[in-house]
Amino acid sequence: MPKDKFFRDIENMHHPDETLVKTHCSYCGMQCGMNLRVNTKTNKIIGVEPRYDWPVTVGKMCPKGVTAYQQTNHEDRILRPLIRDDASLKGTKEGFREASWEEAYDKITDNFKQLQTRYGKNSLSVFSGVSMTNEKCYLTGKFARVALGTKYIDYNGRFCMSSAAGGFLRSFGVDRGSTLPWTDIHETDCLFIAGSNTADCHPTSMFRVWEVQTRGGYLIVADPRETPIARRADIHLDLRPGTDLALANGILHLLIKNNDTDDAFVEKHTNGFEETKEVVKSFTPEYTSEITGIEKDKIIRAAHIYGKAPNAIVMFARGIEQQRKGVDNVSAYTNLALVTGKIGRPKAGVATFTGQGNGQGGREHGQKSDLLPGYRKITDPENVKAVSEVWGIDPEEMPEEGVSAYEMIELMAQKEIRGLYLLCSNPAVSAPNLNFVKQALKTLDFMVCSDFFISESAEFADVILPAVSWSEDEGTVTNLEGRIIKINKAQEPIGESKPDWQMQVELAERLDRGQYFTHLQTAEDIADEFRRATKGGVADYYGATWDKIDKQDGVFWPCIDEKDTGTPHMFLDKTFYHPDGKAKICALPYRGAGEEPDGDYPLYLTTGRVVYHYLSGNQTRRIPFLSDMAPEPYVEMHPDTARAYGLAHEEAVRLTTRRGATVFKVKITEAIRPDTLFVPYHYGHEEAINLLTNAALDPISRMPEFKVCAVRMHKLEAEKV
Ligand SMILES: Nc1nc2c(c(=O)[nH]1)N[C@H]1C(S)=C(S)[C@@H](COP(=O)(O)OP(=O)(O)OC[C@H]3O[C@@H](n4cnc5c(=O)[nH]c(N)nc54)[C@H](O)[C@@H]3O)O[C@H]1N2
Ligand SMILES: Nc1nc2c(c(=O)[nH]1)N[C@H]1C(S)=C(S)[C@@H](COP(=O)(O)OP(=O)(O)OC[C@H]3O[C@@H](n4cnc5c(=O)[nH]c(N)nc54)[C@H](O)[C@@H]3O)O[C@H]1N2
Ligand code: SF4
Ligand SMILES: [Mo]
């Protein structure tokens, strides 16, 4: 049959009253390509379709992505500013009334000014997030430093990417989450993936992961749980939580023993190998097996496969990073690529699975307490001067370095910080040690929260500002490859909601700092200033214009000028970013977790994600399909553990740590170590596992140890007796 007789005309299959807006998903770092379908009569978003012409995800999306459009016109959207006059209702949903923008702005500026007059500039803080565009992240950093003049700004990437950032900076001298584009992954010969539940958390990477095996290559997975990738892996290294440093040292020991190191590369392009050799000497397969609990032969085989693979990519995620030694873990796994020289060429390298949609860009441009736009250090006078010139301020005015996200919360509890402007984050669910965190939020004199759905954290606010969703604004984000891409506007903001950048410009004017902000009237105005502010920095976006992004399917940073097409592969010339051009192989002695199981708390507790929910769940718990699929949290345990405690599937059980206790339903599965419990963290109030987690911080990244603590379990019936 001729093609035109049988096949549908897919070019013209859309409804005549429909237009398509090319954009990317609102959620994770994959940033899958999608078209939002917009009804041209109502100008409302009515649906979505995947983009087959997007090179990274080629038509693939996950359950969150295909329902993301349902956020825009959801009935729970906040349509107008909300004010609560009765501070005694803090921590509840009660007492909010609708107000005009004028009244909300007046209340905010009055309170901010009063607090700063009484307690100084640094009595105010900004806590932000990276579901925002680069332009919004950039302006948030400028707003804190220039409009509020406070040093206290930090963001939710401290709970997410900061250990990867710290590790890459130490090993390579630069922090770009992936040394190569995702389109290389399926062409490599061996993937060594540690602490990533790729199938649930970056599902649209999976076709590339499976393709490695289909081509005859190998997949090695390190995870205490038998995740979908671990199940199909050639080797599953089922380690005890918190023992990655021993595993990576043990593999390195074997690479040296097997003569799988690239001595010429090590000699020419790295430092630190001799010291590292000394440290890993004792990590024999026997000793490594003793610490990690992995069978010795599996460790030997994994080292053999990685060592002999012509090309290999080491990949990891929060499983290794959300530990008190997350930075060491990152450098220890990165060592494997450096000693074997499997880096700085196509199909070989190191990558972290960046978490949030703009987890990469959002950390580079000034939301982190120690950074200014372009990955510039706030402690470096030359860097401060460069940014001050763009901002039009005296370098003397630039606030100094502040503290990390969790440490800001500690300062709130101590009344050192009195006011909080929270945007794009929900720490009342996602921060560790929640009993303490909620008390700290209650202690604040004044709190503003900007969100588009009322979150558990908004319950602590005095004023709630209605933000727009990702589909009602435009700008760029940087995906997990380091590729700068464009988010497009598909609908006008609903109700009286506004983009965060607009709120900041209007607030700055009312704080008498309009001269630095009033010229920024569109997202594009901010984009222009933002690119200039990054010029000459390590993360240089100057050449990444919106036009070029559109023409090239994104632009990999660094991209320094009009002619530059960007940098998909890092280190092709084997030059790293340390002053001597060499990478650092790090000597990392083993240390344990902040809290190890003992007689009182005999099991490991680890936490993470399911495919149906995103982070604190404030967005996905409202989408009917997603909440039907994953309505509540549960505690995953091995059948042997359930038997030992006399527990049945779906029975309620109490978990207790040194910080809190709460009740979950039992889920029995063989896909976890018997000494370990796992709980997904996407739920609020009494269902939040972070009531129990440990805020032990990594000394470099200040990342809390979400992935390991010690827990005790009680059958509820036994408590009644
Ligand atoms: N569905 C979904 N996808 C998401 C997100 C989401 O909320 N939901 N969030 C996005 C964000 S912001 C992030 S940061 C990423 C997170 O992506 P991932 O890091 O892949 O997700 P997690 O579930 O936090 O943890 C990954 C794995 O680490 C394992 N693990 C626990 N302890 C250890 C350990 O000590 N060592 C090792 N090697 N492994 C360990 C867990 O068993 C788990 O399988 O996902 C992104 N994608
Ligand atoms: N136990 C445990 N805890 C964890 C983790 C874990 O693995 N285990 N993982 C950690 C990780 S990796 C992360 S990334 C954090 C994330 O934790 P959070 O920062 O709490 O992440 P979200 O749930 O995305 O919160 C974003 C909030 O901002 C809103 N929002 C989205 N876009 C915008 C916008 O453009 N403007 C404004 N104003 N608001 C917006 C959303 O509705 C939501 O309420 O959680 C961390 N907490
Ligand atoms: S949540 Fe991540 S994997 Fe799923 S569609 Fe969105 S960007 Fe893609
Ligand atoms: Mo994250």
UniProtKB/TrEMBL annotation:
Matching SMART domains: Molybdop_Fe4S4 (SM00926)
CC terms in the record's Gene Ontology section: membrane
Listed GO MF terms: 4 iron, 4 sulfur cluster binding; metal ion binding; molybdopterin cofactor binding; NADH dehydrogenase activity
Keyword vocabulary terms for this entry: 4Fe-4S, Iron, Iron-sulfur, Metal-binding
Protein name per Swiss-Prot or TrEMBL: Molybdopterin-dependent oxidoreductase
Keyword Iron carried by entry: yes
Leader sequence segment: none
InterPro entries: Asp_de-COase-like_dom_sf, MoPterin_dinucl-bd_dom, Mopterin_OxRdtase, Mopterin_OxRdtase_4Fe-4S_dom, Prok_molybdopt-oxidoreductase
Cofactor: Mo-bis(molybdopterin guanine dinucleotide)
Sequence intervals crossing the membrane: none
Organism: Salicibibacter cibarius
Positions of the UniProt region annotated as Disordered: 354-374
Origin superkingdom: Bacteria
One of the GO biological process terms: respiratory electron transport chain
Record-annotated 4Fe-4S Mo/W bis-MGD-type domain positions: 18-76
